[in-house]
Each structure stands twice: as structure tokens, then as C-alpha cells.
Amino acid sequence: MENQSSKSFKPFVDPNVIVPEFTIKAIVLGILFGVIFGASTVYLALKAGLTVSASIPIAVLAISLGKKFLGTTILENNIIQTTGSAGESIAAGVVFTLPAFLFLSDPLVGDSYFKYWTIFTLAVFGGILGTLMMIPLRRSLIVKEHDTLPYPEGTACAQVLIAGEKGGDFARSAFYGLGFSMVYAILQKIFHVIAELPKWGTEQANKFFPSAVVSSEVTPEYLGVGYIIGPKIAGVLVAGGVLASLGLIPLLSYLVHPDIIATQLAKLNLLDVNQVSEKFGWDPTSHTFTNTAEAVYRAYIRQIGAGAVAAGGFITLLKTIPTIVSSFKESLGSMKEKVSGGMLRTENDLSFKVVLIGSLILVLLLAILPQIPGTSVISKLLLGILVIVFGFFFVTVSSRIVGIIGSSNNPISGMTIATIMGTALVFIAVGWTGKVYEPMALVIGGMICIAAANAGATSQDLKTGYIVGATPKYQQLALFIGAIFSSMVIGFTVKYLDTPTAEMASRGIQHAIGEKYAAPQATLMATLIKGLLSFNLDWVFVLSGVFIAIVLELCQVKALSFAVGLYLPLSTTLPIFIGGVVKGIVDWRAKFKNIESEDSELGKGSLFATGLVAGGALAGVVVALLTVDEGIAASIANFSAEHGLTSLLGTNGYYLLGVAFFTFMAWVLFRIATKQEKV
After folding, report:
1. Which of 303, 460, 493, 541 could form a disulfide with 42 if both were Cys (CB 3.0 to 4.6 A apart)?
2. What is the predicted pLDDT for the residue at 4?
3. Half-sphere exposure of 43 toward its Cβ, with a 13 Å CA cutoff?
4. Domain of 149, in residue numbers
5. Rounded to an integer, what distance in angstroms lies between the CA atom of residue 61 and that of residue 171?
């Protein structure tokens, strides 16, 4: 039986009232937003290893475009955001895991599976699995625990939809941010008026501080991400980058001989010690690097960072064990309950038969589809069974965690690491060791990551629907549709962003992922899988990272955020930190002046920052797609003002001009954020 509070709860739209909800225009508009935010998330996650929630921005856009121009109802707007949000969550799961195919022990095997149809299939299956497993859990987690599980993003999204129905202008700030970032990105990425990577560093010969580098990708999406995540997380994130760039790299470049660094790079297949390297500036004749900082980063820091990320994710998972246990018990209890007859519209879920039949079909398809790795049909059947078992468990865990702390803090990486470790143990138990089984382990980890990410987003959407009075069945169908259509574009975007530039191709580089795009989580997953199944890992570097994470946790610092910053270059985390600083100043100013501010999720600053993220990421995707064609890339290069500005201002002057533009953008964000204040 439902508790008293859930019985007395009244949604915004009465359950007995029938209004347009699951309509063609709602689905089409939702698919459009899912495609846009899915592609943007792929770009952002590949570059920075970070994502931002799409539900609230899509709800804002649904109100401004759907209601204004198409006359959509609040329930149609809810279907729009439900359909669209699947793109962001699935894209995050895909990017965090599937690029790891490129970093497995056998590059040819990994490359053979890093194809569009494999990415699309796993994205669709993982997305559907996350939604399927949430069907029997909705009544338990969303309805029965309405008062105990707030689902912060879902509640905020419902408030947006309700406020939009009552009247109000939310979208203007988001559109301002989108337009501003698009203009900024065109000036930066097409005309190169704004430097993309201002950089200052010391020489290797510097007696006191060798090969220390301070750099920053002064892009709108990073500024927006920093503002959204806030100063605390952004500060911990940049701290990892500061330790790496200004601490560990100068120390190691001083202590370690270039020949030893070159040998380590050769071990990682990043360098031929007998040939000149343009990337690192390696000269085999003089045994020196011209870019020692990059060489040390690739040789040592990334592995230390991978160890720290693994430990941080695992520690986060250990902290949630009580939640995991209670979630599992609740899920089993909810499956035993039966819904009495005469149900209201707001209690109408898809049948549990859909869950059973859908799960069975997924297992069978995984066993027979040729794009899925496996040595035989039997081995692929085991793969499918493990996916269902781990999927049910971690979908439950993911849903309850996001109900408490929100999607942004959901330890997806930790759950994926636990899945990979569990999978590796099963494989070892049945004698499946070696590189031939690495792609199979990655498939399981990847699908669980996608399923857990989408389950978190699904839970938030169902919470939104519960508050506004939506029909659960229609939301669940919308999530399936969103998963399918978004996955089409996600796979396409990943593959095209992976296309190397002409300069990369001239150096024999076949993939932009790993070079132009760091893909930190995917690299970590590959490192874990290779080490566990081959018993061959650079444990000295990995364990150094592990103990860094442990020390931080003992100091009551969230190790996972710091570890991601340690793994990523400072050029990525520094502009994110600046965005966090702007948010910190806005909050401090409001507190100092005793000013009441709007809800942070709905404020003008947050909406403008969301626009910056979406616009900057979309511009990055468009430019990346255009430059795949060498002819178009050459044409775009003709518009570059970099040479003229460098000649006029000098290299440092050109860099300072880029910093000035970024500072101006930060000032605009601050001004817009402070306009939301109410005395």
C-alpha cells in the first residue's frame, strides 16, 4: 500500500482530466532537442569528461518554443523534455566508456568494434535497459517515497513547467547565452580572432621551475560548466590540474632523464625512440624533448590520474553501500506488489511483461548480432546475462542515488568500475583471460554505464511527471523513442569527431580521440580492463594515484573531482574554475548585500550559463564536422586572422587578447546573473 503522503498528494494536472500529452509535435520537438543536446554532450564529454543536465534547459526551450509557437500543453512540454533528456544521458554513458575500444591491448581488434553500428547498438540497448528496469521501480521510488526522495533536477524541472504554464519568461537568458556563445565560437574557431589556447611556460633549462606550463582553453562551454557546477567542485577540479602542471610535471622533468621518459612513451606506443616526434619534440640524436611537459604528462601523469580516478570512483561507490543495499531491497519489494483495478491515468505504467520480454530480446540480440564482440554465441549469451544482472542492480542504485543527491553527483564512473571488476572476476573464473576478451568486458561496462546514466535521467523525468500529473506509460514510451533517435546522432557524432585532422594524419595518427579529445573516463576503463585481464599494469603509477585519492578522502576532500582534474590538462580545468569563481562571487554578493536570489536552477545566471554550454559545444561539433573535409578545412583556414594578429601584437599579445575576450564573457555572465536579484 502507498503511504499516506503519496495518497494525499495532488499533481498539477488532475488525474481525471484528459489533456493533449503524447502527440506527434511533442515527440518530434523532443527528438530534435535530444539530437542537439546529445551531440553537444558528446563534444563536451570527450573534451572535458564532464556533462550538464539537459532536462531543465529543454523544459525552458519547450515552454518558449512549444507553448509559444505550437500551443503545447504542460503535459506535451513534459513529453518534450522527457524525450529530449535521453540524448544527454545516453551520450554521457557512451563517451565515458565506448571510446575505450581504441585503447585496448590489440588496436586492430578495438578499432574493428569502434564502428558506427556497434556504438549505435550499444547506445540503444543501454538506453532501453535503463528505462526498462525503471518501469517496476517507479511506484516504489517515485510514488511511495515522494517525500523522502526529492529528485532535485526532476522537482526543479516540474517547477519550470508549472511556472511556464502560469506565465513567465525563462528562455530569454538561455537564448542570450546561446547566441553570445555562437558568436564567440565563430570568432574563435573560424576567424581565430580569439586564441583557442593561451599558454605560458618555463623552459626545461630553467634551474628552479622547469617545464611548468599555465594554459587555458578560453571557450564559452567551459565557463558555463564552471558556473553551473559552482566554486567548490570547480576549485577541487582545478586543484588536480595545478598539482599536475605546476607540481608533478616540473618535479618529474627535473628528476627523470629524457631517455627514460622516451622509453616509457615507447612502452605506451606513443613514441618511436629512433624517430623524431613532432608532438613531443623528441630528437633521438640529442636525446632531448622540446615539449618536455607534454611528454611527462603522457608518460606518467595520465596513469597516475587514472589510478586516482579509479580509487575515487570506488571510494564513492563504497560510501553508497547502505543506499545500494536498501535500494535492492526496495526494488524486490516493489516487484511483489500488485496494482489494484480501476487505476487512474497517473498510475498507468507499461506492463511488467514489457520488462521481461524486453530483457529477453536484449539478451538474444546481444548473442546473435555480429557487431557485438564475442568468441561464440554461448559466450555472448553470458555477456547478455551479465548485462541484465548488473543492469538491474545498478539501475536501482543509480535511481535512488540521484533521488537523494541529484544526477550531477551520481557516481556513474564508480558503478562502471565496479561492473568491470565484477566482470573481470567472472571472466577469470571461467578462464577468459587475455586481450581477446577485453572488448567483451568493455561491452558489459559500457552498457551498464549507459543504462545507469539513463536510469538516473529517467527517474528525474518520472519525478517531474508525477508532480505535473503526467501519464507514466507515455513518458516511458517517450524515453524509448528518445533513446533510439538520439543514439543515431550520438554514434554519428562520436565517429566524426574521431576523424583526425590533416596534420594528425600526416603524423600517422588515425584517431582524434586520445589526441584532440582526451576522453579521460574511457581511457581509465581501457586501462582497468587491460590490467585486470592481462595481469600487466604499471602499478607503480596507478597506485600512486590510488594513494593520492585516499589521502584526499582522509582530508575530507572529494577525491573523484580532484582525480578528474589531475588526469585532465590544466587548460581544461582552469577556465571551468573561472566559471566557478564567477558563481562564487555572485553568491557572495547576494549574501553580503542580504539580497534574496532566485532559485539557482532557474536564475538568469544559470540559464545564461546553460546557453553558453549548449552554444559553445554545438559550435565545436559543427566546426569539427566541417573540418573533416580537407577542402572545407582549407577554405576555413583562409579566414583565419591569427597570423595577422600575431604579427601585429606578438604571440603573447595575441594570447592576452584571447584572455581579454574571455574576461569580457565572464563579466557579461556576472552582470546577467546579478540582474536576477530581488530586494
Report:
1. 493
2. 44
3. 25
4. 4-168+330-505
5. 6
